[in-house]
Structures are given as C-alpha cells and as structure tokens.
Design goal:
single chain, about 600 residues, mainly beta, two-stranded antiparallel sheet, 40 strands, disordered N terminus, disordered C terminus
C-alpha cells in the first residue's frame, strides 16, 4: 500500500498541472477583495473565496495527570490535553470528612478530621497523646525498653524514670518500735530497716590506684591502701627460727636468713627494692617493661621512654656535636639527636584557670597561661617553594617567599666586579676583556687562543675545524690545542659560609650548593594503580592521585547541534545524534 505522504504529493502534482492547463480559461478576479492567505480554487480556477489561515503549532507536552488527544479541524491537526479518566473505587470504609485525591482522582484514604489549634504551654519531648484523631496537651510517656530479666519478683519491680527495672521491690516491712536515734540512718537487712544504726558517713576517696583484692577498712571506712591477695595455706615440714620469706605478699616454705639490719634509705622505690643474702637493700628494682607487639623494623634501634623501649624507631646515627657552650640543665634533643641548644631552667608550676585546646605558648623554654592560636589547615599546594612559604595569621599559605640571597664574605677582589647567577652575587670575578695584541707575524691558519679564550701571537700549525654546536654554554666553551670545542666549561660555584647545620643535606640550585636546608625526605609510596599521565605532587611529595589527562586542541570543520562525542575524557569531532518525533507518521531527524 502506498504511504499517505506519497499520495498527498501525487495529488498536489496533479492539481498543479490542472491549474496550469486551465489558467488560460479562468475568469479575472478584478472585482474580488484582497485575501491575506490567498484564494480558493475551483476546477483549477481561483475564486473570490479566501483561504483559511495556516495551522497553529501543536502542543505536545501535557501534565502527568493528562493525556494528549489530537483531531483534524478545517484541515489542521489540533491537539489538546485531556484529563485522564479516574478509576472506579471499591472502598470498604466510609469517609465523613471526604477522601484524599491523587492526580485529581479520589483514593480510598480518608481525609483526617480537622483538629482545633492547641494552646498548650508545656513542652513534650516524646510527643503528645492523640484522642479521636487529634493531638491533646497531654504528653506521651517515655518509651520504655523491653526487659530481659531472668528473676521473678513476687512483690513487683522497681520503677526508675517512669520505666520498670529488673530490680525487685522489697517485701512489706514491719513497723519498727526502736527507742534509739540514728543520726546516720539505720542499717537495712533483707530489704527492711532494722534498729541498728549506720556508722558515721565516710569521706569520698580520691585514690588513683586500683585494688583487685579490695581496700583496707579503718574506723569503719575504706582507705586507699589495698588489701593483700588471699594467700594459699602452706604445709611446710621445716621450722624457721627467723620466720619465712614472703613472695608476692604470701609466705613460702623458704626460711628467712638471720635478722636483717634496719635500712636508712632516703629514696622511695615504686617497684620495690633488690634483695641480697635474703635482706633488702637500698637499691631499687628496675621498672618491669611491657612486651612490645611492634610490626615495624628499626635498623638503628628503638627509642626509650620511662626506662622502657617503645615502637618508635631511633633516627639515623647522630653526627658528632662539638659545642663550645656549657649546659647546666642538659641539651635539647631534636630528631633523636642532641643539639648545642641548652635546655631551659626548671619551669614553675602553672595555676591557670583557662583551658587551651591547641596547647599553651612557650616563653623562655617554659609554658605560659597564654593559649596557642587555632591549628592551621592542611595545605594542598601544587607549587614548590625553595625559599619557603609566606605566613598569614600564624599559618602558612601557598604563596612563595621571594628569593633571599645568602650573605657572602669574599676574600678576593675583582676589579671588573663579581658575577651574578639567578639574581644573586657570587664570589667569582667577571672575566677580563681580551687585550689588543700587536703581532709581527701573519698566521695562515689563525692564532692560538689562551685558556681565557683570547687570541695570542702564536700561530696555529693547522687550521681549526669549524664548530657548529647546538648546545648553549653560559660559562663559555673549552679550548683544546688552541681551538674551541663544543664542550662547555664547568660552572665555578662560589664559596659559601653557612651558620647552621642541615640534617638532611643542603639544596643545590643551578648546580651549586646553597645554605638552604633540605626538608624531611618524602615517604616511599606503593600505589595500587598506575597512572599513564603520572602522579600528582602534593606539598613537594608524590601522592597516589593521578594527574588529569591533557586533551589536545580540536580543529573540527563541522558544527554539532547537540554536542560532541567524548572518548577517554576528551571531546572528538564526531557529533551526538538525537531524534525528536511528534507523531509516528511525521518525523524529522535532528
């Protein structure tokens, strides 16, 4: 079957041919009025009847609750949005306040009752009670957790904060007929008070030690002294005139030696004293260190804190320090090695009332009551600053400090002045200009050059080969047998006199050593993935984040209405193709 569009095209062509053939037989339209959209034709001839205006644009978008319906009126397609028909409801319950609507249709959900406004003054943390579908001013009780008690309570359970607990209520106690008065209250037995008075109130203990076997009691109150552990019964067959030895607070079958002399020791031993010949001495026992469960290996050994090793590794071997100053309080330690800086004097105890979350400032080596400023945020700078970064509000920024040239103490004198490298003066002299020479001989192959590159009166035996060098030598080229070569002269670095010691070495700028110290070396990283474009550098060290791929600039001659196709994160010259259709029988490709 022929499609409708082709039929309309053939019909238009036939009408056009009929109009052309019959145009000569058609009457004139001199008496007709003007028509803005043209005249109607009958039997191939135009008439005085005007054509209808062109069709209006179609509306293709409707609300979710509406559908699109189209019809033909006066030769034009007209589309309107019509509400979807609502489904029939088969609800069981009746709704006196009406039903709720969804997308303009009734549902089986009833509308809630219109409740009066509440004028309550109380606040309810657990919400308010509901009566007849409306809230009231009465607060809901606290939601109690479910009890998983194994005990049975014949007299019921106690209530705490409005909820039952697993503690049983005591039985009903008999009335007391006591004649004595108890200022501290009466004792309780089987959940009931007795006529026995409680002892005096004991003070609160502020003990720092823990007692697994309990504390000793003095005058009816506990003390900070710990009870010894319960010792097993000893069935020894030997007799001991001087008594038996004690181990871990319990007697053993070993006899004590002769009576030990009284000790007159001045120092206290927290870990006990050593025993010699069965008698204690004034020497203290060393501290019992805990076992270490470290996973790291320390080639230089581990650090010691409080007399015991820790999991922190010692730094590399410290350099020999030859200090001229004397330190009465000892020297400070930096990176595990002693420095020539003296420790400050003993600091006084602080009686500060303020709290410092970031710590306190230090003045003359001692803490003060002034608080440190807030901690600085971590920097995520991509630039490198060989001269350090600027500081703002006591925190470093990503802005680099300007270059600071080192102070030089050059012993030589340069009549032509000193050389400057990268904006800083060096101790190297500027080269002298070549002097004007007057030679009596003529040289067919040219004259020999001095080590400074100046001509002499001595002739070359052979002609120097022509040098076409591609490299640039800022310090000049070497002269071999009176002829220039392409090899560059070595750079002459100035002599530097630095005042501070650098643990990780000094930085080399433009091939010469400077007084700037190297920072701490970057940690070795093993990244789980490989990056074809390399890794990002954060704070001067390599990270495991991949660099973004740099896309090449496009030079496309075509225009893409809906954008270009992206391959591997970069746009290409291929266009995105998109289709939009109004009707299934009338489509245009976009």
């Amino acid at each position: 079957m022929m499609p409708p569009s082709l039929l309309m095209l053939l019909f238009g062509m036939l009408m056009f041919t009929d109009d052309v053939v019959g145009m000569s037989k058609c009457p004139s339209l001199s008496g007709c009025g003007s028509c803005t959209h043209g005249y109607r034709s009958t039997n191939g001839c135009p008439t005085c009847q005007c054509l209808d205006p062109p069709c209006a644009p179609l509306t293709t978008t409707c609300k979710p609750s509406e559908t699109l319906r189209c019809k033909v009126e006066k030769g034009c397609a007209v589309c309107t949005c019509v509400a979807k028909p609502c489904p029939k409801l088969t609800c069981v319950k009746q709704c006196p306040n009406g039903r709720e609507k969804v997308s303009g249709c009734d549902t089986c959900t009833c509308k809630p009752k219109t409740c009066p406004k509440l004028t309550c003054t109380n606040k309810c943390t657990n919400g308010r009670t509901v009566k007849d579908g409306c809230e009231t001013c009465t607060c809901k009780p606290k939601a109690c957790p479910k009890l998983t008690c194994t005990n049975k309570c014949t007299n019921g359970r106690t209530v705490k904060d409005g909820c039952e607990t697993c503690t049983c209520k005591p039985k009903a106690c008999p009335k007391l007929t006591c004649t004595n008065k108890c200022t501290n209250g009466r004792t309780v037995k089987d959940g009931c008070e007795t006529c026995t008075c409680k002892p005096k109130a004991c003070p609160k203990l502020t003990c720092t030690n823990k007692c697994p076997n309990g504390r000793t009691v003095k005058d009816g109150c506990e003390t900070c002294t710990c009870k010894p552990k319960a010792c097993p019964k000893v069935t020894c067959t030997n007799k001991c005139t001087n008594g038996r030895t004690v181990k871990d607070g319990c007697e053993t079958c070993t006899c004590k030696p002769k009576a030990c002399p009284k000790l007159t020791c001045t120092k206290k031993c927290t870990n006990g004293r050593t025993v010699k010949d069965g008698c204690e001495t004034c020497t203290c026992k060393p501290k019992v260190c805990p076992k270490l469960t470290c996973t790291n290996k320390c080639p230089n050994g581990r650090t010691v804190k409080g007399g015991c090793e820790t999991c922190t590794c010692r730094p590399k071997a410290c350099p020999n320090v030859t200090c001229t100053n004397k330190c009465t309080n000892g020297r400070t330690v930096k990176d595990g090695c002693e420095t020539c800086t003296c420790k400050p004097k003993a600091c006084p105890k602080l009686t500060c009332t303020n709290k410092c979350p970031n710590g306190r400032t230090v003045k003359d080596g001692c803490e003060t009551c002034t608080c440190k400023p807030k901690a600085c945020p971590k920097l995520t700078c991509t630039n490198k600053c060989p001269n350090g970064r600027t500081v703002k509000d006591n925190c470093e920024t990503c802005t680099c400090k300007p270059k600071v040239c080192p102070k030089l103490a050059c012993g030589n004198k340069c009549p032509k002045g000193f050389r400057f490298i990268n904006g800083c003066q060096t101790c190297a002299c500027k080269p002298d200009p070549c002097p004007v020479i007057k030679c009596s001989t003529t040289c067919h192959y040219g004259r020999k050059l001095s080590p400074k590159g100046c001509q002499t009166c001595e002739c070359n035996k052979l002609m120097c080969p022509s040098t076409k060098c591609s490299n640039v030598c800022p310090n000049g080229r070497e002269v071999v047998k009176g002829c220039l070569t392409c090899k560059c002269r070595a750079k002459i670095c100035p002599a530097i006199t630095c005042t501070r010691h650098c643990f990780y070495g000094r930085k080399i700028v433009n091939g010469c050593q400077t007084c700037i110290c190297k920072s701490k070396p970057c940690p070795l990283r093993r990244c789980p993935r490989t990056c074809s474009n390399g890794y990002q550098i954060i704070n001067g060290c390599k990270s495991c984040l991949c660099k973004k791929r740099k896309c090449l600039p496009l030079r496309c001659r075509n225009y893409c209405r809906y954008g270009r196709v992206v391959v591997n994160g970069c746009p290409t010259c291929r266009c995105i193709r998109r289709h939009r259709c109004l009707f299934s029988w009338f489509c245009r490709r976009g």
